[in-house]
Amino acid sequence: MTPQDLEARIVRYGDLRPCKTAFIDAHTPGSDQKENFTIIGGGVSESPDQHVHIALPHGFNIGAAGQPPRCRNSLHSHRTAEVFFVLSGRWRFFWGRWGTAGEVTLEAGDIINIPTGIFRGFENIGTDYGMIMAILGGDDAGGGVIWAPQVIEDACDHGLILSERGRLYDSKKGEQLPEGVGPMPLLSEEELKAFPEPTAAEVVPHYVARYLDLLALSAKAPAPVIGAQGKLVDRPGFEVDFLSRGSAQTNASASTVDDVLMPATGHWRLSWSGGTTALNPGDTASIPAGLAYSLEPAMTGEAGLYRVRATDELAGATWKPQA
Q1: Domain extent for 289
Q2: How far, in Å, CA of 34 to CA of 31, rounded?
């Protein structure tokens, strides 16, 4: 594979193309400054304006959200897994019907595997623009987003209407629902009872891993984060490992599935028989199955990287209390 061929499978942080109207809360005050990025796969964007960087199916989707301080993403749920790690900034993740069941604060490098079937939202509580990277289960990411009823109502008050087919229409631009297409129905009180309200004590120990802990766990070998042997519960159709300086892949080897490499800290040297390139925090590289490659920090200092691989398991499991 030539450097040009592989470069086509690398999305550089500086080349990310944001969409500012990706979701129903794009005009709602407090959520109207966020930027959404679809890096691998179609994601769950509700806007036809969303740019997809790599459309090749991987068995999961990779995306990102960038937000200035005090900007939040509104309460929603997914039918498949949703995993985030913090690339930059300080973030508050909260969950429950009204976002009051529990919350946790994550710093750079931390990762959270939010249980499927729970309303969740997140907010940048840092002092600068922040970015979180996302992994969504399944190639079709479960068919879209399930919004808390108040989010749909607030959005309508600010000109955005979501159709029953999952597409946004902006009345401020003169758009309206097509003939024969209705608005997305609100969940009934009976349907809302199916969405659990776990406490932080029930969620955080089993679904959050801290960057410093993963650095220690990966001192000699890659640390399994999500998957059959992972630190975090659930087997969502993909596995996530964490690599650091002591567990870098210094000898070239190939995977039987596509590997997605996502540096969190440090600068990494990716080498294969056709060439070499650098990977930096915020870059996302898709390494095709069967291509032998090596991966190691390019400079001294701290270095951490998340590696994602698809598995043949289900794309996510609903919340259940852990022992």
Answers
A1: 210-310
A2: 6
